[in-house]
Structure formats: C-alpha cells, structure tokens
Known about the structure:
5-stranded parallel sheet; alpha/beta; 2 domains; single chain
Amino acid sequence: MSETLEKLKKAIVEGDDETAYAFAKEALQQGHDALEMVRSAIIPGIEQAGKLWHDNVYFMPDVVLSAEAFKSAMGVVKPCLEGRETASSGRIIIGVVAGDMHDLGKSIVVAMLMGAGFEVIDLGVDIPRDTFIQKVQELNPDILGIGCYMTTTMLELKALLHALEENGLRNTVKVMIGGVPTTQQFADEIGADAWGRDALDAVKAAKTLMTRNQ
C-alpha cells in the first residue's frame, strides 16, 4: 500500500477528519482508484478503530472522531463510486425513534455498517413512526435498524413494530434494535429479529440477519 493510503488509514484510526479528507483528495490526485482506497485504507481504518474500542483501548469520544474521519474520507471518494457496480452486504435503513434526539451512538453504528459494506440510509434522529413505515415501503430494505437511547422512548420501539405489522410490512424486513436502555430480553419481548449491544455487535447481528435472508 502506498504511503498516502497508509497516512489516510492512520488519519481515520486517529480520528483526524481534516487530515483524512486531505489524504483522500491527494490519493485521488495521485491516480489511486476510489474503490481500492475504500477497500485498502478507509474501511480498514474504521475497522481498526472499532477493534481498539472493543479492546477498551479507545473510548467513546475516540470512536466518534474516527467515525467523523471515516465520513470525511468517504465524502471525497463517494462521487467517484457513483454509477459503478459494487457489491453490497445489504441495504439497511436506520434511525432513532420519535422523541429521542441522541445521535452519537447511531452515527457510530452507521459508520461501522458502511465500513462492513452495507448500503446505509440514515434517517437521522427523532423520526416519526409514519416516516419509518414510508421509507420501508419506498426503499425495500433488508434490515430496519432502530435506535433508542432513553427509557422514556422504549415503548415507541414496540409501537413501531406493531405499525410494521399493521401495514403488512413485518414479514418483508428484518428489524434490529439497539441503544443504551435496550436488552436482548426486551428485543425478544417486542418481536425484534436482532439486538446490537454496541456498534461492533450491530455489524455482527446485521451480517447474521443477511445470512438468514439468503
């Protein structure tokens, strides 16, 4: 791997978004293929940051910075990838339930899922139930990822699962939930297909769900 790509990967691991952006631009100017940049530097960078977090070397603020650097680099190469046939691990719609404005955990999950090759449609935070339903109907995702970061909004998860059922969509999409107050037991109680303890666990769960879909 070239020195520029090594520096790009290092910038993502270290959470330096400006440097990641600069080296991504420089790599393209040097003639590096955008897809190869993603495969050899950008994805390995966010994966290494995730592993450091899992091993308790990195803390939440470190991973947030790495996720921002990852997104900066992806922003540079994305226009070069449009229109190209690239294999996707699956399509995921993700958002945080209505009444919940917490974006931090969801943003890390989005970065990790993108790094794992998923096509991710990020709806954002405080998403009304009807919007989730509409997007599932429009975009036909493989997985619907729903974040909940407050105990006061946990019932919205149950209501959203019920709304999917009422609209005849529950059997068309796998549902994965996550967030600080959620548990595997709660996921089982409301009928979710998977629960992610953290961002790395969410990626593992998503891959497992896709295996079941095949």
